[in-house]
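dumping this here so i dont lose it
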């Protein structure tokens, strides 16, 4: 019986400001350590390679988002959420849908949302699997109170 492929997606978009408070740095460091341990566990726990054809993979990730406001020269911190659905066509090609939402706060929250559809080529002959994709997407950006 062949094992089912497992996937874990980690997204981290961070350029942390030196003035960030210690509590925020500790929280970000803890999140990185947790996701790193999960990713390592998933790599170690897969004893055999499995093809991607006729499989559906779902993934979610949470990360750090920020905005540097040029007018106020102020860095605002936020949250980045991403969801991925992947359908394997054969052992190398898959179709993907990616939805991403970023919320930057505290004053005048900024919301960014993106949706992407792509065809991805998965080069599954090495231990770390690179993915190349081409697709089309749409994005929105809304600043509350503006």
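and the seq i came up w/
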């Amino acid at each position: 019986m062949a094992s089912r492929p497992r996937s874990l997606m980690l997204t981290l978009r961070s350029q942390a400001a030196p003035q960030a408070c210690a509590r925020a740095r500790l929280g970000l460091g803890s999140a990185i350590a947790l996701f790193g341990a999960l990713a390592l566990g998933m790599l170690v726990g897969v004893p055999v390679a499995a093809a991607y054809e006729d499989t559906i993979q779902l993934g979610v990730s949470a990360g750090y988002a920020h905005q540097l406001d040029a007018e106020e020269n102020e860095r605002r911190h936020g949250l980045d959420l991403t969801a991925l659905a992947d359908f394997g066509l054969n052992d190398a090609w898959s179709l993907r849908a990616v939805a991403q939402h970023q919320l930057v706060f505290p004053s005048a929250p900024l919301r960014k949302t993106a949706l992407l559809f792509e065809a991805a080529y998965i080069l599954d002959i090495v231990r770390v699997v690179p993915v190349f994709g081409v697709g089309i997407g749409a994005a929105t950006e809304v600043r509350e109170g503006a």
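The beta strands are 56-69, 74-88, 93-105, 110-122, 131-143.
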